[in-house]
Specification:
- The protein has eleven helices and 17 strands.
- By secondary structure, the protein is α/β, with parallel strands linked by helices.
- It folds into two domains: 2-132, Rossmann fold (3-Layer(aba) Sandwich), CATH 3.40.50; 139-319 and 352-371, Dihydrodipicolinate Reductase, domain 2, CATH 3.30.360.10.
- Strands 16-15-14-13-7-12-11-8-17 form a nine-stranded mixed beta sheet. Strands 3-2-1-4-5-6 form a six-stranded parallel beta sheet, sandwiched between helices.
- A hairpin with a 2-residue loop joins β13 and β14.
- It binds nicotinamide-adenine-dinucleotide (NAD).
């Protein structure tokens, strides 16, 4: 197996999730390339050393540009706040690196477009975006069932991503600053469900019919102080949309929907059947087959852990020995390494061009909310 040298930027939540996936991936998957955890970049040198020792990174740096300058590094994994994705990703592409960037692609559509264009220009390199929920086996299986035409023409897409950690006691983290995050629950949570909806249906949003964005908590405590600062992002955003193929859709994201904690869900209703995925019960896919008829019809509860039947299941544990959050990231690294080794991924991976389309939908919804009007996607470029 060829070594593939990886650099990582950011060592907190996603830095941990990605490091864990890198450590595990070649133990569970047979891959064309072996990832080597080369260098991790972050801002706090002391914390960084502890992080590197704990996760097995060989070297550290407090200057992320060192990753671009190092000729040995093949792939750079970006796990930093949204406003630095563009600068970091473009620098890495210009230095000849493959890039796997966290979602949303960027905080603003302008940054996202620059990233898409840089990826287009860098013909030899691949880009990936961490829309990791695609790689929950149940969601990947839903994608396969839709491709097998099991639900037929799609009428409805109903997606929600509900959390509750953003109450008044939560300090003014970067996630509440427009300059750092771009938006609040919208870019954080709607980004995932828009990606999931586009991925599952294989269809594109053509119009946002209306949207509402609300900031309930306008001031928060500055971390480590008693002072208050302004929250400049939404706490919740809801919008209605149409897809090119005719389906109608609703999307809702909130950080104030107690007691939901990570209730990422999507339901699709079609002519021949329906599908429903709920992340908090992520090993299960609900499927309704309309041909069951009125007598026995209803939701089937499919445990998506059967090797050979369900995506990624053969790489993990026996039937119903369930997997969790971290496995989505490991499954994603497996597909990233397959693609870099010129093999096919289990299911399609989002690249910068794909994530740019998700960003256009998010932008259109923000315009719809701000200007209180419908927005055609053709007007958002
Ligand atoms: N895929 C998912 O499900 C998922 C989940 C959570 C977060 N995210 C995304 O991951 C990214 C990071 O989020 P997080 O939750 O890990 O944040 P975090 O605050 O936990 O960690 C951010 C890291 O970036 C570092 N950092 C910040 N600014 C930097 C800079 N200018 N240069 C170098 N390093 C810098 C910080 O020191 C920290 O290590 C965001 O884009 C977020 O939207 C994705």
């Amino acid at each position: 197996m060829k070594p593939l040298y990886v650099g990582l930027i950011g060592q907190k939540f996603m830095g941990r999730a990605h490091s864990n996936a890198l450590r595990q991936v070649s133990r569970f998957f047979e891959l064309p390339a072996e990832p080597v955890m080369h260098t991790v970049a972050g801002r706090d040198a002391e914390e960084l050393d502890r992080f590197a020792r704990n996760w097995g990174w060989k070297a550290t740096t407090t200057n992320w540009r060192d990753l671009a300058a190092n000729p040995q590094i093949d792939l750079v994994d970006i796990a930093t706040p949204n406003h630095v994705h563009a600068e970091q990703a473009i620098a890495m592409l210009e230095a000849g690196k493959h890039v796997a960037c966290e979602k949303p692609l960027a905080g603003t559509l302008d940054d996202a477009r620059r990233m898409r264009d840089a990826a287009r220009k860098a013909k030899k390199q691949k880009t990936f975006v961490w829309y990791n929920y695609r790689r929950c086996p149940a969601l990947a299986f839903a994608w396969k069932l839709i491709r097998e035409k099991r639900i037929g023409r799609i009428y409805h897409v109903r997606a929600q991503y509900l959390q509750s950690w953003g109450g008044p006691d939560t300090p003014l983290l970067w996630r509440f600053k427009k300059g750092d995050a771009g938006s609040g629950a919208h870019g954080d949570l709607n980004a995932h469900i828009v990606d999931m909806a586009r991925f599952l249906t294989g269809d594109e949003v053509t119009e946002i019919h209306g949207a509402v964005s609300r900031t309930f908590i306008k001031e928060r405590t500055l971390p480590g102080t008693k002072k208050k600062g302004k929250s400049t992002v939404d706490d919740a955003v809801l919008f209605l949309a149409s897809f090119k193929g005719g389906a109608v859709a609703s999307f809702e994201a909130s950080r104030l929907a107690a007691p939901h904690q990570n209730a990422n869900s999507i339901e699709i209703n079609g002519e021949k059947g329906s599908l429903r995925f709920e992340f908090e019960n992520m090993n299960v896919l609900s499927f309704h087959d309309a041909s069951d008829g009125a007598r026995e019809g209803g939701w089937r509860r499919i445990m998506c852990t059967s090797a050979g039947n369900h995506p990624y299941a053969a790489n993990w544990w026996p039937d119903a020995h369930v997997i969790g959050y971290e496995h989505g990231f490991t499954n994603m690294y497996a597909d990233v390494l397959r693609v870099l080794g010129r093999k096919k991924p289990e299911i399609p991976l989002p690249d910068f061009a794909d994530a740019y389309e998700t960003q256009r939908v998010l932008e259109a919804a923000m315009i719809a909310a701000k200007e209180r009007r419908a927005v055609k996607l053709t007007s958002v470029r």
